Amino acid sequence: MAPRSSKQFEEIREKSKEKLVYAALELFATHGYDRVSVSQIAKHAGVSKGLVYNYYASKEDLVQAIIETYMEVGEVLWREIADPDPWTMMRNIIRATFGMLRTQPDLMKLLTGLSLQMDQFPFIKGLIEKKAEGYLLLAANLFEKMGYKNPALESRVLGALFDGICVQYITMGPPQFDLDSMENYLIEKYCNNEEA
Questions:
Q1: Residue 2 pLDDT more than 70?
Q2: Per-residue pLDDT for 195 more than 70?
Q3: CA angle at residue 26 from 20 to 29, to 5 degrees?
Q4: pTM across the whole model
Q5: DSSP 3-state of 90
Q6: CA 126 to chain centre
Q7: What CATH number has the domain spanning 60-190?
């Protein structure tokens, strides 16, 4: 058998890191950040504890990797849903947000939990605050184009609605929490092309 190339080693490295990120995400979301050890993450990922430390210096580094991975995914998603029509763009934002709740419940649970402890994670606080500021500005811009009297405030209201829906969906889950009805309500409220 021929020795592995540097490209093959890099692919193995990236797959191992990906396994660790997903294992950590699942465990953090299920048990909480403080209750999960690096040993548990390694075991869940099917790798040695030493390999975890080979890629990440600490649990905090793993959390940062999770956040950065999904922020990159989010950036791609934002480019895909962009639309010059403000009502269509708002509909796309609402659908994408609810889509994340449906397809990435562990990530949403982790982000919600971490957001309540942001002071404990300064690097996360900075990342989330910067992203939130950008999203609020984007939404305010859309609301302004849609004719809302106070677009900045409406942007914050929508953000608070998303946060509350996320918390309720995570804690109650289906069928007690009807995600479809909430999504349809917000689309009807914000995407009907009538002036606010």
A1: no
A2: no
A3: 130
A4: 0.80
A5: helix
A6: 15
A7: 1.10.357
